[in-house]
Structures are given as structure tokens and as C-alpha cells.
Predict the structure.
Amino acid sequence: MAQVQRMSRLMIKTLRDDPADAETLNHKLLVRAGYVRRTAAGIWSWLPLGKKVLENITHVVREEMDAIGAQEVLLPALLPKESYDATGRYDEYGDLLFRLKDRKGADYLLGPTHEEIFTQIVKDQCSSYKDLPVILYQIQTKYRDEARPRAGVLRGREFQMKDSYSFDTTDEGLAESYALHRAAYIKIFERLGLDHRIVSAVSGAMGGSASEEFLAPAPAGEDTFVDCPACDYAANTEAVSFVATETVDGSAHGPVEDLDTPDTPTIETLAAHLGVPASATLKNLLVKVDGEIVAVGVPGDREVDLGKLGEHLAPAVVELVTAEDFEGRDDLVRGYVGPQGLAKVRYIADPRVAPGTAWITGANKINTHAKNVVAGRDFEVDDYLDVVVVEEGDPCPKCGTGLQLDRAIEIGHIFQLGRKFADAFQLDVLGQQGKPVRVTMGSYGIGVSRAVAALAEQTADDKGLCWPREIAPADVHVVAAGKALQTELALDVSEQLNAAGVRVLVDDRAGVSPGVKFTDAELIGVPTILVAGRRSAEGVVELKDRRTGEREELTVAEAVARLTA
């Protein structure tokens, strides 16, 4: 049986003020309440209360993974470069990877995710279709060298994650494994008390086909997702696809005409100079794709989503051009680029730049723009890609209703990887017909430490943290609001509750005022607060619901019975 947690013996130091560098609610409260402390940028130490919350989340995740027949393993975090070279991800991850060498000069990395290693394990251990299907998972530390780690434990360079992988011999089997994980994730997040949405997503460096994210709506979230108010459509903004505009008749437009537009290198200055809406202009953004200059055309009132563009062109590296890229390129006039003069440049356009549409755009001459520039007549589009930033009110791809935008924290992601990793490592098993069968895989992640931050963001109030019971570091926070008599009663009640299996944190600190104890109890966020206070001599205590603030006076026997029912 676990012991009562006594705050007089607990390593905890609460703070009255927010950390100077804290921007988000979870960062402020997890530090102030003594759950975590910053060790370095993006690297956090989990203190006793924080470790309990982390373990409680891990327990829920482990129970639900075991329930679908998954088997837990633990693979190394320090990994050989060769495994990631085999899939090309050593280069694809770029600066996100922590790279290092051993004393002999061999290359290693700290694992950001473990598809390669799990694939190799299964290749070593499974040789027949009889060995499959199998689902393996682990809960361990991952590493990504974030350029700007922020928001406390929400976006760190070291973080706790559950990653699992399914191995099947057929696409139908993969679909079943994917469905098992999807259902398990719904149960996990419901048990954790997380409000969440399941949205369509892109696979990114993971590869594969079907992909869904589990998002926890919160103002501090780094993901933006769309939600249709009229149907069940929801998606990460990078996964939203615009329905292509049909070809229009451009024959009514006159010939291309140059316009004198001095000092108008931006859409804003051009629209103001001509007295036209930005939507009448064509914005041409120059980027480099694996070092080659490419132009991207979108309506002037829209912005290019570089994340979307990168997903479309992956695994190629996409970056913005610099001033140096214009040197020696007479065909590129900075601020006045138009598609009708880009014979040497690949031209990508958003579907809104449909054949037959006419635009005001750069004339490829300094201080000059051109009007009546018609797509399909005056310039050709090499590739149509949906690359604009999604905006509130854009039509739902499913029903056409205006979409709503919201912020959220990514707490889970599931992928049908297919055979990308199996192909890289030639993962075959002997099939039922006696011939080799290529294995197909799924990959499924839950951000365990991110879930702590997401819960803090969603459930906290103006007084502090407010944990769901299954996740809280204790079930009941007993406060001795006085001296010897109150402390004696508080400890007695705590022992009775503990004996009945209730997890108890008791504030028995001497020399600490009742006001400070009450403030700390609300800051720490245990769901039920029991106060041994002014009526302790009568054997009466106060029960307070941390979330609602409702209070009730009960005898000790009544309180114990209530809390152990």
C-alpha cells in the first residue's frame, strides 16, 4: 500500500509569480505548482508531483495499448546513422536531428521516432505469416532539436512519447490495425479527460497514405485546424484541399497591357496605386526547391503556405530565395515578377489561378506591372497545387459550407505507412503460398508529456491547475488549516483514506499559514480538497470540489465514507 504524501516531507517549492520567460498557461502553472523545472532550453526536469502525473498518463496509455494486444518493448534512444540512411530520413529530418559521433568516429543520432529500428527488429524476429500480425509499442524519450523550444513542456527538445507499430501481410490487415489504434486512442483521451478532435492530416517525413491527428483545442496550440459547422469534416490546415476552379472563358479579355507602377514592389502598394482589390492581382513567390528557383502563383489576397508546399514537393527541400539568388538572373526582376516571362523557371500555381482567369501581375520590368495577363493564354502552369494558407470562411471540401478555424495541441497521430519502411529494409515473410510477402506497416504516436501540457491548458482556471481525477497526483488534498489539533485530525483522516485505497496528499507543514496552504491546494489542482479547520474539535471537516468550488461540511466518518464510496 502506498504511503500518504506529506508535504512536510515532499520536495516541492511553489511560486507566487509566473516565470519571467513563461508565455503559456501550462508553462506558468506547472512551474509555479512545483511539477517541473527548466534545465535548459527545451529540456525539463520532472519533479515528484510532475512525475506522478506523467506516470498516471503512461498508465492509461499502457492499459489501452495492452487491451488491443500490443506488446511493449524498449528500444535504444541512441541509434546508428545507417538505419536512417536506408530510408533517407537522416537527411530529410535536417536540423531537427541530434547528430553525434562516438570515440571511433562512427555516426549516431538521438531517436526522433523509431520506425527504422522497429522494422529491423521485426525482420530479425519474424519470418513467417504465422508470426503476424503483431503490434509493438514503447514509451520512452524522444529527441528533436527544435529551433525555438517554447511553451514549457509543450514543445521541448526532449519529450516523452508512446510510439507503436503494426506489421501485417495485407492492406486489409493494416486497415484493421489502424482501426484498433484509432479506437484505443479515443478511449485513452476520453479517460485522460482531454477534449479532442480527430482531423485529417498529412504524413510528412513519415510517408504513407492514411493519416489522422488527434488535436486538443487550446489557445496555446501550435496547430491550426478547420472544422465544418455543417458536416463532419475536420482537418489540419495543411491537409485541406481546395476544389479546383473550372476553366473559364478568357476570350473577352484584351491583350496584355503594361502599366506604369513606380515603387509598387508589394501587393499592398500595387493595389493601392491602381485602386483595385488585392484579389485582382497575382502574387508570384520565388522559392528554391533543392536549390532550383521555382515560382509559385497565388491570388494577391492570399498567402503561400510553405508547409503545404513542402508537403506537396517532399522529399525535396523548399526554402525562400535570397537577394543573392537574383544576381546574374536578368529574367527575374525583384518585386515585379510575372509568369508570362518565366521561360526558364518552373511555375506552380494554386487552383484558383484557373485557365482563362485574368490577372494584374508583374511585367518583369522595374516599376512596371501588366494587366489582362490570362492563364493558359499568356502563360502556362507547370503544376497546379493547393498551396494557399486556409482562411476562415473558405469552402468545406466536403459540403461547401464556410470553414471555421481553431487552435489546438497535437496529442496523437496515426499513420498507415504502407510498405515504405518494409521496402527500405526488404522486410518479407514467407506467405501462405510459400512465397515471400512484403510486410505493410502502421505507425501510431501519443505525446505523453504533451498530454500533461494539454490537460493543464484545457482544465486550469484562474486559481491554478485542475486535474481530472485519474491523472491527478492524488485523489484528495488534505489541508491542516491550523496548529496541532488540525494537523492531528488531518493526518488521521489521511491515514483512513489511504487505508481504503484513496491517494492522499496532506499539507501538514508547520509554520505555514492557512492562507498559503489554501492557495497552494488550488494551485496544485488535486480534484478534491478536504480541510481540517475551525470545527476540527467537533470532528467536522470541509470538503471542497476543486473544479466547481462547491463546499460541504461533514463529520470525519461522513467524509471518509463519501470519498471511499
Observations:
- The longest helix spans residues 171-192.
